[in-house]
TrEMBL record:
It comes from the Bacteria. Keywords: Signal, TPR repeat. The keyword Transferase does not apply. This is Uncharacterized protein. InterPro entries: TPR-like_helical_dom_sf, TPR_rpt. Residues 1-25 form the signal peptide. TPR repeats lie at residues 28-61, 96-129. Pfam families: TPR_19.
Length: 359
């Protein structure tokens, strides 16, 4: 389960971070680091044993107790996990991850309402936590509260735009509605933030399917153009103006895809889109993703970037042949990507938050 892997990664990172903090009881800190190593290797029994020793030395250390509760959760002992974590929730040094662990313990015990209330409580304390929005959204979707689940993922994107999980889940939810525009936008952000996982491959497929879906329904773009003209005539800012401007600009590129959607045609579509966007909408709607694409275009790496996104899922053999023929260009892109990753920016949230699933 991804939620489990995400928490494990965070807990291990905290273990390394905690090791750098000067402490008075060095022996206890060393035990904490040893326990983190056991968790990383999957030896939860030894992790629990060692953490209990560390807590004996520092009984008021919230981090040690949180890691102990997390180890119990990983081991599957939910009763001990719950009794360890619950007393920590109201402490001043409680953090968002503590609420995340507690919520997952309640879910494992099938105490769904308690888990949901806990996530809400955690979000009141930590309203910028992408992880809590993500987990709360997943729980609400499981409970078939679809609009509530999506609202959490979108709020997570708004409040913590560098956390990838909310983009992933939002894309999956958007695949059930008519308009694929946000899959195209959020999906590309996601594959830049989380580039080499199973979820990356899944979202790449969703991305190319979303482009096909967009161009198979011209009414999406013609309606967006009409809405955009009305919005500009009224001189009132609409919550949907960004999405309308995006679809209207994409609609101008229809002739490019008349022979089908593949990486080569998408290079042309996306290049022409960028030229149009920065002529008409770029000033009003600054957006890190489009700036990143334009920079790659200026560097002569946009073809390689587009191949990197779409090639593996469009046609693996053709992608391999392309990278062999353009090895220097592709290697240059990979190097650029390592040194110049996409950095999403706050205050660039333009989603109108409209979402509904038929029941």
């Amino acid at each position: 389960m991804y939620m489990r892997a995400s928490l494990l990664k965070i807990a291990i990172c905290i273990g390394f971070f905690f090791a750098t903090i000067p402490v008075f009881a060095q022996d206890a800190n060393e035990l904490f680091n040893t326990a983190t190593g056991f968790i990383r290797s999957g030896d939860y029994s030894n992790a629990i044993l060692v953490l209990n020793q560390a807590i004996t030395m520092e009984p008021d250390n919230t981090q040690y107790k949180k890691q102990l509760g997390f180890a119990y959760w990983l081991q599957g002992d939910m009763s001990k996990a719950k009794s360890t974590i619950e007393p920590l929730l109201n402490k001043k040094d409680a953090d968002a991850q503590l609420y995340q662990i507690a919520g997952n313990i309640y879910q494992a015990k099938q105490e769904w309402k308690t888990a949901q209330k806990l996530y809400e409580k955690g979000l009141k304390r930590f309203p910028e936590s992408g992880e809590l929005y993500n987990d709360n959204g997943q729980l609400l979707m499981f409970l078939k509260i679809y609009e509530g689940g999506m609202a959490n993922w979108l709020k997570g994107i708004e409040k913590d735009p560098s956390f990838p999980g909310n983009y992933y889940n939002a894309c999956r939810a958007y695949s059930y509605v008519k308009d694929p525009s946000w899959i195209i936008i959020y999906g590309e952000i996601f594959v830049n933030l989380e580039s080499y996982t199973e979820r990356t491959a899944e979202v790449r497929t969703m991305l190319i399917d979303a482009y096909k879906k967009l161009y198979n329904d011209p009414t999406l773009m013609t309606q967006a153009l009409a809405d955009l003209e009305n919005e500009r005539k009224s001189k009132k800012t609409s919550a949907s103006e960004f999405a309308d401007a995006y679809k209207a600009s994409m609609g101008k590129q229809t002739s490019v895809v008349m022979t089908g959607i593949d990486p080569e045609s998408l290079v042309m579509v996306r290049t022409r889109f960028l030229l149009d966007w920065f002529n008409f909408s770029g000033v009003k709607f600054p957006y890190a993703l489009f700036d990143y694409q334009r920079n790659l275009l200026k560097e002569g790496l946009f073809d390689a970037y587009t191949q990197w996104i779409f090639g593996p899922v469009s046609n693996q053999s053709a992608f391999k042949a392309w990278t062999n023929m353009h090895k220097a260009e592709y290697d240059a892109f990979l190097q650029y990507q390592r040194t110049h990753p996409l950095k999403v920016r706050p205050d660039e949230y333009y989603n109108d938050n409209r979402f509904s699933l038929a029941r």
